[in-house]
Design goal:
mainly alpha; 367 residues; 15 helices
């Protein structure tokens, strides 16, 4: 019946051609796409050309739901279909890049996993030559055979198991962890949690520091009764008023982290040529800074509660120095993963760019 309607498209009667276009659209058979494309390109009736274009788009949308591989659209457009959101298209591209990297590393299991996730988000990518070749390399099957397997989670897992499973991840291959949750809504929650942790930590450290100061003065003064009473009054007043400065410092530190992330993003993308997004950087950086702040505050609290005054003020600089080195190291690690370059390479390139920039400006060397 499809062949009969395709033949009817060649009728000299415009009404016959119109009926054939409607019948082919209702049939939703991808085999009619080539004939509809010919009508779109060469029919003398503009109304029928537009109808053929709409019929072809309708067939494509219906066929993509079943994972069918389709030829390029007759109007030459390559944008994702209307039912694929911008976020899904971007996430599908990320999964395709990850699948390519894993295939290069020889991990077919993870390559198939990420390829299946990409095509589930944006099935239209299956008709691209690059993706078609990737499907053939990873699965060893034709595109028509592989697509139903890749799009079905259980069948995809069975294929991965049959090919030997996934290789254990080595250090540096975890790039992209948490990418799926990198939304501005989640980042907003991360910043809120960071502000709360910083505020509470500042208040706790401030009150314990006052307590240590009181103990130190009491130990230094021969008759501490009067001074102790004055300090108790100061402690009571400070305890009731310390929450407001704590919230204020929480806001200051949160705004500073926002600015810091923006500066890192500009430097990583425009100076170092990295490939990453600001929202993903915040999604990785803010929770880490939250835990780091909590850890430093907890360390100070432990020192103040269980250490003497002398121990506290001797060990505090050492704790801060060690914490600063650790935070710097892991921050560079996060940046290298988000923007897809090694941490040593990132530091080296940054130093090299800073050193040779005047020479670049003078045209004496290429950076």
């Amino acid at each position: 019946m499809i062949d009969q309607w395709i033949q009817q498209l060649k009728s000299p009667d415009p009404e016959q051609r119109r009926q054939a276009i409607v019948a082919l659209a209702n049939a939703r058979d991808p085999a009619a796409l080539a004939a509809l494309a010919a009508i779109y390109r060469g029919d003398p009736d503009p109304a029928l050309r537009e109808m053929a274009l709409k019929a072809g788009r309708y067939i494509r949308q219906e066929s993509q739901k079943t994972g069918a591989v389709l030829p390029p659209p007759p109007d030459g457009t390559s944008a994702p279909p209307p039912d694929v959101s911008k976020r899904d298209a971007e996430l599908a591209q990320f999964y395709l890049s990850a699948a390519t990297n894993y295939q290069t590393l020889g991990d077919r299991g993870r390559a198939i996993e990420h390829l299946g996730k990409a095509l589930s988000l944006n099935p239209g990518r299956a008709r691209e030559t690059f993706v078609t070749n990737l499907i053939l390399l990873t699965t060893g099957m034709s595109v028509e055979e592989a697509l139903p397997v890749l799009l079905h989670p259980d069948r995809r897992e069975a294929l991965i198991a049959r090919l030997g499973g996934r290789h254990p991840l080595e250090k540096g291959q975890q790039h992209g962890a948490g990418r799926e949750s990198a939304t501005w809504e989640n980042v907003g929650v991360d910043f809120l949690v960071y502000w709360v942790v910083v505020s509470i930590s500042m208040v706790a450290v401030f009150l314990l520091a006052l307590s240590k100061i009181q103990d130190m003065l009491n130990s230094m003064i021969a008759n501490p009764g009067t001074v102790s009473a004055d300090l108790n009054t100061l402690m009571s007043a400070s305890a009731s008023r310390s929450s407001s400065p704590g919230y204020f410092y929480g806001i200051v530190y949160t705004v500073s982290l926002v600015i810091q992330g923006g500066a890192i993003h500009v430097a990583a993308t425009f100076v170092l040529g990295g490939n990453g997004t600001l929202v993903y950087l915040y999604r990785r950086l803010v929770p880490f800074q939250t835990w780091a702040t909590f850890g430093i505050a907890a360390g100070f609290i432990v020192l103040m509660l269980f250490g003497s005054v002398t121990d506290t003020y001797f060990l505090m600089p050492l704790v801060m120095t060690g914490a600063s080195i650790g935070i710097l190291y892991y921050t560079v690690e996060i940046i290298s993963q988000v923007y897809d370059f090694g941490w040593f390479q990132a530091v080296w390139r940054c130093l090299l760019r800073g050193y040779c920039w005047p020479w670049c400006r003078a045209g004496r060397m290429r950076c």
